[in-house]
């Protein structure tokens, strides 16, 4: 399915993952120009791409980027029990496989590639970089919109975590994890909260046992491996986020081995910056993101031009 509106072409497609499951994918592409870079979206827990990331896709496509998204297994329009993540590694594999195929298309091989993750999507993006580093070693830049780390007042007690972990082997799909209403905590704009509650593709029940365990373990693992991040990145985080901890985003900024890194904390803003904030705040956030992206594209193009010139010079020396 394809639609065109406001200078952007939107397409949807279903693909099969390595486990034979049908996954929903979508893209937003500028109509009047060739995309100057590719942006791959990694959505948050219980969310999906076609509705909740529509504004992100349109904004970035209108800025000249090719934007691609997919719904994880158990999320959105993809197959699987809604809200159930049996293996976080499998989610990373699905994203890595699909986005790698797009990157390797003939028309995309020389384009820069950017991973953009929000909330749980940040925890999907970082292992993706480790899984296929050859895709990102020359042209990859990562934007993390809120790194996953559950805030203390949203996290169950250690005793509860211990009990729930043991139960994962017995009743992994049960909705037993006690948490606050994430919709009310994450999305500041009441109109967005209403839209999410009316969106059948957003999971709104309590976290399932195995899903909660997977999110908890991956967040702990990432916190221990922050220094492994070497690519340029931008982190943006709401100062009043009560769902994921801003201090862990700051920790990534401080511990990452990247030379080129930026961290923006927005006072008064909540968890969901790209969708849940008021329009005027989203304008501020996207203005910062697009400015950062354009700066990296400019730097990358200069680097690629130097590499191409060097290669041409070497060919000239050989031929002479």
UniProtKB/TrEMBL annotation:
<feature type="domain" description="Serine aminopeptidase S33">
    <location>
        <begin position="34"/>
        <end position="273"/>
    </location>
</feature>
<protein>
    <submittedName>
        <fullName>Caffeoylshikimate esterase</fullName>
    </submittedName>
</protein>
<dbReference type="InterPro" id="IPR051044">
    <property type="entry name" value="MAG_DAG_Lipase"/>
</dbReference>
<dbReference type="InterPro" id="IPR022742">
    <property type="entry name" value="Hydrolase_4"/>
</dbReference>
<dbReference type="InterPro" id="IPR000073">
    <property type="entry name" value="AB_hydrolase_1"/>
</dbReference>
<dbReference type="InterPro" id="IPR029058">
    <property type="entry name" value="AB_hydrolase_fold"/>
</dbReference>
<dbReference type="Pfam" id="PF12146">
    <property type="entry name" value="Hydrolase_4"/>
</dbReference>
<dbReference type="GO" id="GO:0016298">
    <property type="term" value="F:lipase activity"/>
</dbReference>
<dbReference type="GO" id="GO:0016020">
    <property type="term" value="C:membrane"/>
</dbReference>
């Amino acid at each position: 399915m394809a639609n065109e509106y406001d200078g952007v072409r939107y397409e949807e497609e279903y693909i099969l993952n390595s486990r034979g499951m049908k996954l929903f994918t979508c893209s937003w592409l500028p109509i009047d120009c060739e995309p100057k870079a590719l942006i791959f979206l990694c959505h948050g827990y219980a969310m999906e791409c076609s509705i909740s990331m529509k504004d992100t896709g349109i904004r970035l496509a209108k800025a000249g980027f090719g934007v691609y998204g997919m719904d994880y297994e158990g999320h959105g329009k993809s197959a699987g029990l809604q809200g159930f993540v049996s293996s976080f590694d499998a989610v990373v594999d699905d994203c890595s496989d699909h986005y790698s195929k797009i990157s390797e298309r003939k028309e995309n091989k020389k384009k820069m590639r950017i991973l953009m993750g929000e909330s749980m999507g940040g925890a999907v993006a970082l292992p993706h970089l480790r899984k296929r580093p050859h895709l990102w070693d020359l042209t990859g830049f990562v934007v993390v919109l809120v790194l996953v780390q559950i805030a203390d007042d949203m996290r169950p007690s250690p005793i509860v975590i211990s009990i729930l972990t043991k139960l994962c082997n017995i009743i992994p799909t049960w909705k037993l994890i006690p948490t606050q209403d994430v919709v009310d905590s994450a999305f500041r704009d009441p109109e967005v909260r209403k839209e999410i509650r009316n969106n059948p593709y957003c999971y709104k029940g309590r976290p399932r046992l195995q899903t909660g365990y997977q999110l908890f373990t991956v967040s702990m693992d990432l916190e221990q491996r922050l220094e492994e991040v070497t690519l340029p990145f931008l982190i943006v985080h709401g100062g009043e986020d009560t769902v994921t901890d801003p201090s862990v985003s700051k920790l990534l900024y401080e511990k990452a081995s990247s030379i080129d890194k930026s961290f923006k904390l927005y006072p008064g803003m909540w968890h969901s910056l790209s969708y849940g904030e008021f329009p005027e705040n989203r304008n501020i956030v996207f203005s910062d993101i697009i400015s950062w992206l354009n700066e990296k594209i400019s730097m990358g193009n200069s680097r690629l031009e130097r590499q191409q010139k060097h290669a041409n010079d070497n060919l000239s020396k050989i031929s002479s």
